[in-house]
Amino acid sequence: MLSIAKRDVPFDVTAAFDLLIPPSRFNNTRFDNYFPNPNYESQSLAKKVTSEFILTKTKRPRRTVIGSLGLKAQPKPGKGLYLDGGFGVGKTHLLGSMWQACTVPKAFISFVDLVNVVGAFGFEASVEKLSELSFLAIDEFELDDPGDTVLISNLLNRIIRRGVDIATTSNTLPDKLGQGRFAADDFLREIQGLAAHFEVLTIDGPDYRATEFHIEDEPRSSDDLVTMAASMPNQSAVSSDSLFGLLEALTRLHPIMYSRLLEGLALVIVTEAKTIDSLAAGLRFVTFTDRAYEHGIPIMIGDTSLNGLFSASILSSGYRKKFGRALSRLSQLRDEGERVVAPI
């Protein structure tokens, strides 16, 4: 059993563009294995619209010929598709399916990683690199930070004018569902000049994790988790760190390297957990959780319940949507961890 808090992961700026493919959890997402909930017609419609969007993309030329002799070609502006909905309705599955079905130059990246990539590479270099694409899929577009929103909106405005089609997802807060499509309204307002290029597609339905997994949980002790994990045959694939030690390690590492921190692991154990009161620490842990979720690496947390992991002030902050998603994902990762340490 190892400590990832003690791992030496040097910053490698060239690694940033290695992230432009779907993470392992979404390797097998296809339109054929997206099964709409029959009680929500919008899910069937979303499957139809997203598949047609990609089919059209593969047939549509990127450039429009100007002039009778065809001597001058100008980029044809790209199109945008925004998937709006609550947690766990299959938005990322559909986004991954679009990427898998796309046959032209393409990339898949989360909003947070895209912000980090631009920060690492620089704005103009990122524009040039992403303009080589024909299709860009952005998961979990976030409006929490005005600076990040402006940065990415400007970036997308540049590349969409160069003919890049964009599809992105975001979450409507559970308490806002049915109230004027809160997230979609915010998205269109914040991207301003880009809004005319985007079609909004709303996907209704419950969070599938709410029926398959349980956020209400009795905490296991750290000692119990370590004892359970000690029975796993490959101890080099198991990490065990205190929550404080892990959070401290995350402060020393650029977020684009969090995936490298998790390489080779089959289970992450977090011991001696207490309520996280610091917003900055909470946001780093959310990013770490997202990377673990995307790569299918279970996280088991000892000594506190998921409901007690983040303080009330954090959960009511402007980033509450991000923390809500993290708790939904942590509930799934915890249950997947139970199956890893005690396989059926």
UniProtKB/TrEMBL annotation:
Q: Which GO molecular-function terms appear in the entry? A: ATP binding; ATP hydrolysis activity
Give the superkingdom in one word. Bacteria
Do you know which InterPro entries this protein is assigned to? ATPase_AFG1-like, P-loop_NTPase
Q: Which Gene3D superfamilies match?
A: P-loop containing nucleotide triphosphate hydrolases
UniProt entry tagged with the keyword rRNA-binding: no
Q: Is Phosphoprotein a UniProt keyword of this protein?
A: no
Please provide the record's keywords in A-Z order: ATP-binding, Nucleotide-binding
Provide the Gene Ontology terms for cellular component: cytoplasm
Residue span of the signal peptide, if any? none
- Protein name as catalogued: AFG1-like ATPase
Q: Which organism is it from?
A: Acidithrix ferrooxidans
